[in-house]
């Protein structure tokens, strides 16, 4: 991260949702700005930096914007975290939070949340009956239900709910599916698809890319070397 400027970062995942248990990992995500001149050299800066133990994912500002514009749930939630989950909030981070609705569009929210939930369901279908397998199945089922819930609320209201109001329901659902109630998970997916069809969403058909690009260009201007700005 030498020369990189962290703009916004926070704790996401189970801790942010209120689903964390004693053995849960603490996942972090952030957005950083690379020096603007670095994009013009022989070796462009990395667009993502990922580490494990601790689990930290940081995306360069342009990569982050593209992910959020596509509806990526993990990238999107960084802009909607409860205040106690933020660890770094710079001026550009605050501006990013202020324009978070500009990233949203109805088709991309629907496709992203149903798509990621579908990935979780496919993991459930390949579950095994060992103790470790049951634990993983319960985790995938919780995240399946959480994605469907968050996606529907976001689609219906334009607001992304991060901290779940009833985390015990999601834990119980995970345990039921891990115990063999795969049909309950399949029914939840089908119900969500029907809900997306019937909900009248306030979200636009397309995100506000002009507002997002204005933020990104301001980030680039702010990370030019001072001597270039004086010329």
Structure description:
- The chain is an alpha+beta fold.
- The protein folds into 2 domains: 5-103 and 209-230, Beta Polymerase, domain 2 (2-Layer Sandwich); 106-198, no CATH class.
- It is built from 10 helices and 5 strands, in the order E-H-E-E-E-H-H-E-H-H-H-H-H-H-H.
- The protein has helices at residues 14-17, 61-69, 73-77, 91-98, 106-125, 131-157, 167-178, 182-198, 209-222, 226-230, and strands spanning 5-12, 27-33, 48-51, 55-60, 86-89.
- Strands 3-4-2-1-5 form a 5-stranded mixed beta sheet.
- A hairpin with a 3-residue loop joins strand 3 (48-51) and strand 4.
- Helix 2 packs antiparallel against helix 9 (209-222) and helix 6 packs parallel to helix 8.
- It is globular and about 65 Å long.
- The chain starts with a strand and ends with a helix.
- The mean pLDDT is 92.
Please provide a brief summary of the model.
The two termini are 28 Å apart. The chain has ten helices and five strands. The longest helix has 27 residues, at 131-157.
For the largest sheet, list the strands in their spatial order.
Answer: 3-4-2-1-5
Distance between the termini: 28 Å
Which value, in Å, is the CA radius of gyration?
Answer: 19 Å
Number of helices: 10
Give me the CATH architecture of the largest domain, please: 2-Layer Sandwich
Give the integer mean of the pLDDT values.
92
What is the SS-derived class?
alpha+beta
> In this structure, how is the largest beta sheet organized?
5 strands, mixed
Shape: globular
């Amino acid at each position: 991260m030498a020369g990189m400027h962290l703009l916004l970062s926070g704790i996401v995942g189970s801790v942010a949702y209120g689903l964390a248990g004693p053995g849960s990992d603490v996942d972090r995500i952030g957005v950083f700005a690379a020096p603007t001149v670095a994009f013009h050299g022989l070796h462009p800066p990395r667009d993502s930096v990922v580490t494990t133990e601790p689990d930290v994912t940081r995306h360069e500002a342009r990569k982050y914007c593209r992910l959020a514009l596509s509806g990526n749930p993990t990238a999107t939630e960084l802009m909607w975290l409860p205040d106690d989950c933020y660890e770094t909030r710079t001026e550009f981070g605050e501006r990013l939070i202020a324009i978070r609705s500009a990233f949203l569009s109805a088709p991309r929210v629907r496709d992203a949340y149903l798509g990621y939930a579908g990935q979780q369901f496919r993991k459930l279908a390949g579950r095994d009956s060992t103790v470790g397998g049951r634990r993983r199945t319960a985790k995938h089922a919780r995240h399946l239900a959480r994605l469907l819930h968050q996606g529907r609320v976001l689609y219906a209201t334009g607001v992304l709910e991060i901290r779940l109001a009833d985390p015990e329901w999601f834990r119980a659902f995970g345990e039921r599916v891990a115990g063999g109630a795969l049909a309950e998970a399949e029914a939840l997916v089908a119900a969500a698809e029907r809900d997306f069809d019937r909900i009248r969403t306030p979200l636009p058909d397309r995100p506000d890319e002009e507002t997002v690009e204005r933020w990104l260009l301001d980030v680039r201007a702010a990370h030019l070397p001072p001597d270039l700005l004086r010329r």
